[in-house]
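A student in our group prepared the protein record below, which I am reviewing. What it holds is a sequence and that sequence's fold in token form. My question to you is simply how this chain folds and whether the tokens agree. Do not assume that whoever made the record got everything right. I have pasted the whole thing underneath without changing anything:
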Amino acid sequence: MRTSVWLVRHGQTTYNRERRYQGQADSPLTTYGRAQAAALARRLVRQPFSHAFVSPSSRASDTAAAILAGRTITAVGDARWAETAHGRWEGLTYAEVVARFREEAARRFADPLHGRAEGGESLVEVHQRVAAAWNDLLRDHPGGRILVVSHATPIQLILCAVGNLPPSQHWRWRIDLGSLTVLDVYSSGPIVRMVNMLPPLRG
């Protein structure tokens, strides 16, 4: 029995374009981001998904809505697929973070696993909730074709898990905006079908 999991990163947002920490803050899809969502919808139009899960952010839910338009299934929100919470850094650029919170930033980057912005999450905490969501998905929907619309860090952490890499190495996986990553999970283990596939845009 194979469980096929299709992991999508949402399209570009205003904060992405401005290179701001976004995390769990809401920022709308740009025109380009909506085009990316439409490209994903065209790429996935023939995939008969049995279930769909989505991060609660509007950028993820809007991307999921484009993919699932005209289908009988709807995406179920699951906060465990959310991006890392960056606390008081959200909405700021890297330069603004360093200027305002120099010591906090130094501590955060000195400890990639446990460091965090004030009010935010550590990578360990994100890894724990994403792993729980992944394990529940595989347990509850064996043999399904499942869509998950999420963010870069959760997708990277899943790839680390199936590739036997520690969470601290998540940055080794490039997961672009509007990209598709597919894993086929068998009883003997997972097979990586594709990573960071970018459907072609129109126009």
Remarks:
- Residues 9 and 151 are 5 Å apart (CA to CA).
- The beta strands are 3-9, 51-54, 76-77, 145-150, 180-186, 189-197.
- The chain has a mean pLDDT of 97.
